[in-house]
Request: fold
Amino acid sequence: MIGFFYRYTLKKMPHLKDLLSRAGIYKTPKQFIKESLISSMIVTTFLMGMIIVLSLNLIQIKFTILLLIFLIILTISVWFFFSAPNVLILKKRKEIEQNIISISRQILIQVKSGVPVYEIMRYVSKQKNEVGKTFLEITNKVSLGIDIEDALIESIDMTPSENLQRLLDQILNGLSSGSELAPGLENLIEQMTDSAIVDIQKYGKKLNPIAMFYMMIAVIVPTLGVTMLVVVSSFLSLNLNLGMLILITVFITFVQFMFINVIKKGRPNINI
Reply:
């Protein structure tokens, strides 16, 4: 079964190997698929065990519904673990974008001071962020005997950030043509700064409607909804057991968590 799923996944995701490399997951596609399937089954089994225990003690759930829940949880688990490379790539991109402008300014200052390019890269590689890790990989390759231009080209192909690609491309062009790095870096920094300011302005405009929607869906509707449910159940003699109240609480908590996560994820995280 794993062999069939492996072939099917590679057919649907032919660039899985490059995707894993970009995400910093140093595993073969076969290892990644196998471990993702095993993790999905473990999570699904654990959650289904909790649901079955709950169904035996609090809520009576039919077998067909349990089977449907099993398939839904398994599908979500497989999707979750197979989305890990994309999530890691997105996380790396956001961290790079957070530091790229300030690091580009540091590089520009050292270029204007006459520091050699390789020494600049060694300086940047000491920084504890994704940009520093990228430059550390480049300097490590150079120390192993790989040509600095080839190392830069490999990093340009593998980095998930367009701005970091442009920065490395500027350095590569300067080394290849022997031209001045400073003018190109100044222009690049100006473009990145303007883009960051636009992103901050867009976020400010988007925040107000999101906050209003959060107040409606996550605060007002649950509060009034639960109150009305209690009133109606008392009139109609409906039985509100502990299981239903737990499900309502879990749903409200999940909705609030999702809204907070959306607001947090959408915030531009940039050091200008």
